[in-house]
Amino acid sequence: MISNSPIRIARARLLTTLLVLCAVVAIPRVARAHPMGNFSINHYTKIVAGARDVELDYIIDMAEIPTFQETKERGLITNAGDPALVPYLARQADSLKGGLTLDADGQPLKLECVSRQAIFPPGAGGLPTMKMGFVYRASLPDAIAHVIAHAIGARPLSLHYRDDNFAGRAGWKEIIALGGRGAVLTGSSVPSRDRSLELTNYPTDMLHSPPQTLEALVTFTAAPPGTVAGGEPATDGAGAAAWLAAGSSAPAPGVKLEANRQGTPHSAFTDLIKSKRMDLAFLLTAALVAAVLGGFHALEPGHGKTLVAVYLVGSRGTAAHAVLLGAVVTASHTISVYALGIITLYASQWVVPERLYPWLGMTSGLMVAGLGFALFIRRYVSADSHDRDHHHDHDDHDHGHDHRHSHASAPIHRHTWWGGHVHEHSHEEAQAHGHPHIHQDANHAPAAAISLKSLCALGITGGIVPCPAALVVLLGALAIHRVAFGLFLIVAFSAGLAAVLIGFGLAMVYARRFMSRFAARGPLTERWLPLASSAVITVVGITIALQSLAAVGVLRI
Amino acid sequence: MSTAGNRRHCERRVSIAAVPPLLAMMLWLAMPALGENTVDRTIVICQKILRVRPDDAAIYYKLGDAYVEKGRETGDITYYDLASQSLQHALKLEPDLGPARRHLAYVLYSLHDFAGAARESRRAIELDPRDPNAYGVLGDTQLETGQYDAAATTYTQMAAIKDDLYSYSRRSGLETIRGDNSAAIADLTRAIAIGRRDGAPAEAIAWAATRLAEDYFLLGKLDEAAAQDQAALATDLGYYRALASLGQVRAAQGRLDEAAGLYRGAIAVIPLPEYAAALGDVYAKMGRHEDAQRQRELVEFIARLNTINRVLYNRVLVDYYADHDLEHHQAIDLGAREFAVRQDIYGHDALAWALYRGGKAAEALPHIVAALRFQTTDARLYFHAGMIYLALGRNDLARARLARALAINPHFQPILDEVAAREYAMLSGARKRQYAEAGKSNQR
After folding, report:
1. What is the pLDDT of residues A404-429, one digit of tens each?
2. A100, A272, A517, B212: which has the fewest Cβ within 10 Å?
3. Interface test with A, best of B38, B308, B337 (most A CBs within 10 A)
4. Which ipTM was obtained for this model?
5. Does B51 touch chain A (CB under 8 A)?
6. Which residues contact B196 (CB under 8 A, 6 or more apart)?
7. Which of A69, A168, A212 sits opposite B40 (nearest CB)?
8. pLDDT for B218-253, tens place per residue?
9. SS3 call for A470
10. How far apart are CA B444 and CA B441, in angstroms?
11. What is the Cα–Cα distance from A307 to A357, expressed in whole angstroms?
12. How far is B89 from chain A, CA to nearest CA, in Å?
């Protein structure tokens, strides 16, 4: 019994390890606890002081426990489409209004709720959290509005705001203030930029503890003539613009609610790596699990898999190319995870990694699209300008120089924009004609096919978008000073990813060969397949870039 | 000439280098005058200084200290994480910074890493054998893990260095466990007086007052307990521990509406499962079964979250399950797991109580005996012992334990106090009948 228990514990630990790894790597979006702690209630107010009215954008983000209390007490179903939500939010808007005080020059203003909504993003273990957004508007009394509107340069009007809701409950409490339509702020006890991106991001470290602001004093006056209405300078880009547009005459605005961007890095995963056992069996199992998950991960969209396939099919790649491309994608993927990890660790003061993702994605997407487009042009011209009477039967990559192949005219080939190495090259062949040749190694591939550089370029651009899952693994390990183990897990994870990508590439290569047996020299393989493949690469690149833009919020899909 | 110029140059550089520390010191001195909530202000000021002087270990320590205080005030574990980050950073810059190490020990203790806390506090004592608080944290760790003799020695060492709120209130905790209630109450009273005199943080004074209230409650002195809770609330407005403690007193006094309101107030600040469980019991006693059910669901929900978050220490949950006769297997499992790292008397008690509910009274017996080895004046312990003896058929011992529980505090816990009274009455009745029958047979 006693001698048994360590084995049992080890086994249980191993099982937990597997489960936790699965949870962390496979479903990072679901297994997130609320970043501010399970029982927090987080407040956010954006005061937009205009010449005629004052608007409060008020967001309440409840973590798992308060959400559970609310749903139980009000019989709420945590579904944004639930019909019971409408009366609930109306009541909530009313009762929360009771906790808010807004005075203009000592006169209490009457708040009116003009918009309310709620979402229920999943938190720890998929348990729901609740985020509510309200827009309250208060018209300034005529006398005050008159002063603001006509007495330019006179004494500024002062606003006093106070939030007494959920007093004493832990959480992030943030207030910001902006000038609205026809008004500018002359003074404010709170900043004009938010730290939490409207309670979607809680960047907390020892030098940036959660704000605890529940009161604000703001002074404002009419905007001097000539300034844009709502002339608050240097605000938060698109978000602020949207708020400012929502002035008094605009239709009822809403608060844009989004799920939290980070979870608690503290909970589940760290427990895995904290596990003190570091014997061989544990390491091997962890590596195996990581590799398998890496493999599964490769099957998710956005990992260069499509690119590998399309490129290899379109460019008559060989098995070696498939292996190489898979390896390059994986290597660049791993490196970018490390790089982002380093950025997160050392540069998080200046760069917020969560905001870096979309831009990386967009850059990579644009590069892919550019590559694809260049390929497309080249193939288009090549296919057009050339008689297609050559043989091509290079089933092996050691075919070298002795087969006949056909190529496009030289001028176009001299300038491949990604730096493909192009030069004139003459062959002593039956059909000897001077032709340009992309020339990298002993194996001369056809020009319309694969050069090592273009392959690397594609692989790197395809792999450079790091996945958050891998990053979480790395940072989790770093956070508890198990750097080596974290690096090791990433390598294992990447190896699994590579295996699947390479397998995929090989499958594509053989599938194409199988196909080309039937139409070895038809227009399908000679002209349309390469063209279609480069078109698809372009589209994939554009899609990646657009998705990234959407993630930043520049674009709305 | 050139040497003089050099010297002047050096002097200027020295004086420039002295500006930031001076500035820091001035800010430091000005801090208490800056506003009411000094903890928040300390945090802000430390952060500001560290942006300019990122290598200042002492300021990192001060920041960690403020986070610890903030964590104590709010009960928000996020602040302990921040505190631990700051303190570890301070130690990275200056590994021999004793106070930072001692604080780190305290954070680990608060997160229930008792082994880590003991290790760090011992190192802090090595670094500074005259640091009373390092002994304090070590003693707390020993107390929580049931090493009472060691804790007594450590607390004595602490008190020899300095007698303050912290040393007196720590000693009183040990005295309560050892059943010396009058000494415990005297020490706590003294601790509060000293704390007020020395200008200790309001939260620390309120904490000691709440502890005193709990000591009175153990003895069944409900009015005195209420007075202390009210004093705590007057010191620290809305202090959640005091709200819950006063709720317990009001429930015992039968002022159920008031008790429910107080528990609701505590839950509004921190929804701790023990408060939800207690509120559920109050609702049940009021006949508001739906509300009671809702609170119990909240307890279950928090338990589920704790499982997800892999919280290992769940004594509260063990007590809750056992009190309500639920989830026997899980209660025993949780109780045993916690007992493996924490063999204090309440660890013994929780495991015994869970085992009893799971039908394993024989296994429960040695644990409840161990829990009562100091004859701690706690009606709950005697009640559990009584029920275990009853299940084992040792009626005389059961009756004696139940009698003691009811004598200490007849309203020790809603609903279960009624169980104790009922069982006691039945045992007494049976005994009377027995005597009567024995008497009759003698007469014959």
Report:
1. 333 333 333 333 333 333 333 333 33
2. A517
3. B308
4. 0.73
5. yes
6. B205
7. A212
8. 999 999 999 999 999 999 988 999 999 999 999 999
9. helix
10. 5
11. 20
12. 10
